[in-house]
Write a structure and sequence with these properties.
Blueprint lengths: L14 E4 L3 H13 L4 E3 L3 H8 L5 E5 L7 H10 L9 E5 L6 H9 L3 E5 L4 H62 L4 H32 L8 E4 H18 L3 E5 L6 E4 L1 H17 L6 E9 L2 E8 L33 H11 L3 E5 L8 E7 L15 H5 L3 E5 L3 H13 L3 E5 L2 H11 L3 E5 L7 H10 L7 E6 L4 H9 L4 E4 L4 H13 L4
Parallel strand pairs: 1-2, 1-3, 3-4, 4-5, 7-9, 13-14, 13-15, 15-16, 16-17
Antiparallel strand pairs: 6-8, 9-10, 10-12, 11-12
Length: 521
């Protein structure tokens, strides 16, 4: 006669029973069921060992069932568990001296508890509950290990993709440089090579910037430059940024804007980045000649922007994970010509920083995708002049700028660019050189490299700040390092702003505008 088992809703936490008699099994099952402990009765020891593979919270075995080779066989089955598993084994033993079977079991298995018969019901239930609590913690550890393994796999794939993506623009850059070095070209014939190099450098900068942006946003270290924005203008800016990728895919892009633009409060650069990333995503994951539609509307107190494409689509099981770091829909990376799997993570973070929400939907593979962004509306229309910006030239022309960098090419090229924008410049290649140049040049602004040998940029900034002649000048740090500790150290040195290499002229212009608003030049 085989005792009936209680219901096993959760096989991972059931107790596998092998008792001396079927009567004992019936009694144990009934007692444990009243205490809420699920059981599975196994008629033989080999069946119990097979059931371990289907999940178990603990084993409850009578001493008599371990006679002969039973104890050693059970120890072998338990030792075959994965490294995270320490399956609890409770042995119902006879009173008196330890038997050879129990000794073998205790030597072969780490987590063994011996309970002498007769045992009180409360003691048995208590022992099993303790064993099951420990087993739950093991399952939690298993989940952590699985998540870490998945994260490690994603990061490994990401690093391989990053290496591939960074190599791609290096090849045309190297080729264009070789051509310009070896061949004398007129400005007109050289222009395509300069444009090629510019595109490839921009591509590399975006890859690195995306990484740094996600890191800053997830740590809460980014500050939005909030202002009143006309949403229609933000969408037009995003379309302009994404147009080359859309045109390269021969896609039809239709933008459906309301006649009267709605006003939202936000950072114009960041929101343009949000919608440009979504448009780029649509263009990359849509086969050539596809269709992309942008719909702008409002729903109660929110603006609603939908970007819909006829592309590769998203499987239902991926919709919940599509915004996670490093996640890419399987099989689409080649169609997208690479990608780091961080674009949508960045988009989601930026939207949420603006108090909005983003969602994705798709009818499945090859059925297209639709991303919906909801942003809080201001309770009035767009005010006149809300979107006006000072030009880079007008801002830069107000300054005498001291550029300091031990990399001569970097310093001289930045100075040349600033001069083209109307600024007066002086260049220094070390801290002491900068202090000497500053005496005669009397700069209103210093753009200082941080990582210089000898006197670094922070020490130079401190010396400029204590000098009466330069006390009121603006200071901008320019560095390749953007970790929180670096930013704290740079701020303490007296810098007004911190920009990352290579310098972005829009960000530099924004920094100059802030300095102007504070009365510096």
């Amino acid at each position: 006669m085989t005792a009936a088992a209680t219901s096993t809703d959760n096989p991972q936490l059931r107790v596998l029973l092998r008792t001396t008699t079927s009567k004992d099994a019936v009694m144990a099952t009934a007692v444990l069921a009243r205490s809420g402990i699920e059981t599975q009765v196994c008629p033989t020891l080999p069946e119990l060992m097979r059931e371990i593979g289907n999940g178990a919270g603990a084993l409850l075995v009578s001493e008599e069932m371990l006679s002969g080779s039973g104890a050693a066989d059970l120890a072998d089955a338990v030792s075959a568990q994965p490294p995270w598993s320490d399956l609890p084994v409770l042995i119902l033993a006879r009173q008196g001296a330890d038997s050879r079977a129990i000794t073998t079991a205790m030597e072969g298995m780490a987590n063994v508890t011996v309970l002498e018969r007769p045992i009180r019901v409360a003691s048995l239930v208590s022992a099993l509950r303790s064993a099951l609590r420990a087993r739950r913690r093991q399952y939690e550890l298993r989940k952590i290990l699985e998540d870490l393994g998945e994260a490690d796999k994603r990061k490994t794939e990401f690093l391989a993709t990053l290496a591939h993506e960074l190599r791609n623009p290096m090849a045309p850059l190297s080729t264009a440089l070789a051509i310009l070095t070896r061949k004398t070209l007129t400005p007109e014939t050289a222009q395509p090579y300069y444009q090629l190099m510019g595109r490839q450098v921009e591509h590399m900068v975006r890859l690195v910037n995306d990484l740094m942006e996600v890191s800053r946003i997830t740590r809460g270290k980014i500050e939005l430059q909030l202002g009143e924005l006309a949403l229609n203008e933000v969408i037009r800016g995003a379309v302009e940024l994404s147009r080359p990728l859309v045109d390269a895919g021969r896609h039809t892009l239709e933008v459906h804007l309301p006649e009267a633009s709605k006003a939202v409060e936000g950072d114009g650069v960041r929101l343009t980045q949000v919608f440009s990333n979504l448009l780029n995503n649509a263009a990359k994951y849509t086969p050539e000649g596809g269709r992309i539609d942008v719909f702008v509307a409002h729903d109660d107190d929110h603006a609603v922007v939908r970007i819909k494409d006829s592309g590769a689509g998203i499987p239902a099981d991926m919709l919940g994970a599509i915004f996670e770091m490093f996640v890419q829909v399987s099989g689409t990376a080649r169609a997208a010509q690479g990608g780091l799997g961080i674009g949508l993570t960045l988009v989601k973070s930026l939207v949420e920083l603006h108090g909005g929400q983003i969602s994705a939907k798709s009818d499945g593979p090859n059925q297209g995708s639709e991303f919906t962004v909801r942003l809080p509306l201001l309770d009035h229309g767009v005010q006149a002049g809300a979107l006006k910006r000072s030009s880079q030239e007008a801002i830069a022309a107000r300054h005498r700028i001291l550029v300091v960098d031990d990399n001569r090419d970097a310093a001289e090229s930045l100075a040349t660019l600033l001069e083209l924008l109307g600024a007066q410049t002086a260049v220094a290649f070390s801290g002491p050189d900068a202090l000497q140049k500053a005496e005669g040049f009397r700069p209103t602004l210093g753009i200082l490299d941080i990582g210089m040998p000898g006197m670094d940029g922070c020490e130079l900034a401190r010396r400029l700040r204590v000098h009466a002649m330069h006390h009121g000048m603006g200071l901008i740090a320019l560095t390749g390092w953007g970790q929180p500790d670096d930013r704290v150290r740079i701020a303490r040195a007296g810098f007004d702003h911190h920009l990352l290499k290579p310098v972005d002229m829009e960000e530099l212009s924004a920094a100059l505008l802030k300095l102007a608003q504070r009365g510096i030049a």
